[in-house]
Amino acid sequence: MSTVNSKAKSYVLPLITLTSLFFMWGFITCMNDVLIPHLKNLFQLSYLQAMLVQFCFFGAYFIGSLIYFIISYYNGDPINKIGYKSGILLGLVISALGCALFYPAAAYAAYGLFLGALFVLGLGFTLLQISANAYVSLLGPEDSASSRLNLTQAFNALGTTIAPVLGGYLILEFFAKDGVVTAESTQIPYLIFAGLFILLGVIIFFVKLPEFTSEAIESKGLGALKFTNLKLGVLGIFFYVGGEVAIGSFIVSFLKQHDIAGFTESVSKNYLALYWGGAMIGRFLGAISLNKGIGAGKKLIYMVLTAVAVFLVILSIVDLTFSQISYFLVFIVLNLLGFMVGKSSPGRTLALFAAVNVLLLVITIFTGGHIAMWTILAIGLFNSIMYSNIYTLAIAGLGKYTSQGSSLLVMAILGGAVIPVIQGAVADVMGIQKALFLPALCYVYIVYFGYYCWKNLGHIELDAPAKGGH
């Protein structure tokens, strides 16, 4: 439990401030998908070498979380000692430093320096991952904490949707010299990002945020691992983040292939925005689906209207016409049907969405042209609720071991470092399309985890508090 050491008040301004943090968090994370093809061409890298971008970035999550876990185990929770606000500010400073390091990396045109900058950036995001979500849960009544977390996750997804378009334009076009993309193309954009992190830190420093202390009982040993759902959930997060990141990392290169779409990088980045935009649509729909205060009929109406509204927002963001992305509406309808069949059961919905993604990947692997293009882009829609559902189910019933279990789940984000690298190695040998069998296997495991939890944890409500996106 957490106790807020301040009188009940409106936390609208702090919530808006932290929502902007989640937006930037998603934006910068998704910029990796733009960087990968850019750096691959710039340094003439193999797919395996290019995937080191994700290995260093998401590997920092594991290293940072492991260090944090060890310190917490022997000396107590560091964030609880310095305060969550200080933890967020420290995370922002480290993130800004990581962005600033892109300048010397580009000046020396050294791939190793780019990877080092990404590792530092990942360490900053690790602190934000640990710190920011707890704050969001405090900014208002406890019974509405889940809806606030889903809202911030949706704006995190908005950042991942805009990043390929805006970030891709800055690096691939605006700062390209005479139409030629060079290492220096990343210098000014990432200095701007560093400045935005510092600005956000200054704003958060002056915004009054609630202070709270933890009353949770800290337990020695690895007691959380005695819970089967936690052990299975750690693997679930590993495979989910790994599969999602691996697919996103390859979409631009996949769409460049002549037997798929033959798009340039500048065009492909707009379709990459659809992949991440699908996650945003699904999270908004999930937030409505979680609301127990809305009747089934009204809930469906609200979900349909929200899906249309968010689709129009995405259409306004990407540099594509309605006719070019109209096929995406078919998969949005399929996503809506998925929520209806899931019936607000977290395990059932998770297993169903993962099964759909397996099917979409199989179609992508064994077809070609625009069919393969649309089936791979639609995966983002069904990724939407996976992190929060896996997290919620994994920590269900942990009691005093919940905090320990949560830190193990954050470590499992390591999947975003490992799976893309393995897929890169497979793609170098078999090609991108056949290498997609790897994320398909990841989703097969999630089908199993969702089914296990559906049958064994059926009493857990879908609106149980879940902590943030990856």
TrEMBL record:
Membrane topology type: Multi-pass membrane protein
Highest taxon of source: Bacteria
InterPro entries referenced in this protein's UniProt entry, alphabetically: MFS, MFS_trans_sf, MFS_TsgA-like
TM region(s), chain numbering: 12-35, 47-70, 82-103, 109-136, 157-176, 188-209, 230-251, 271-288, 300-318, 324-342, 349-366, 372-396, 408-430, 436-454
Family matches, as CDD domains: MFS_FucP_like
Protein's UniProt keywords contain Ribonucleoprotein: no
Keyword Repeat set for record: no
Keywords from the named record: Cell membrane, Membrane, Transmembrane, Transmembrane helix
GO terms under cellular component: plasma membrane
Main location: membrane
Locations listed in the record: Cell inner membrane
GO molecular function: transmembrane transporter activity
Matches recorded under PANTHER family: L-FUCOSE-PROTON SYMPORTER, PROTEIN TSGA
Protein name: Glucose/galactose transporter
UniProt organism field: Mucilaginibacter polytrichastri
Taxonomic placement: Bacteria, Pseudomonadati, Bacteroidota, Sphingobacteriia, Sphingobacteriales
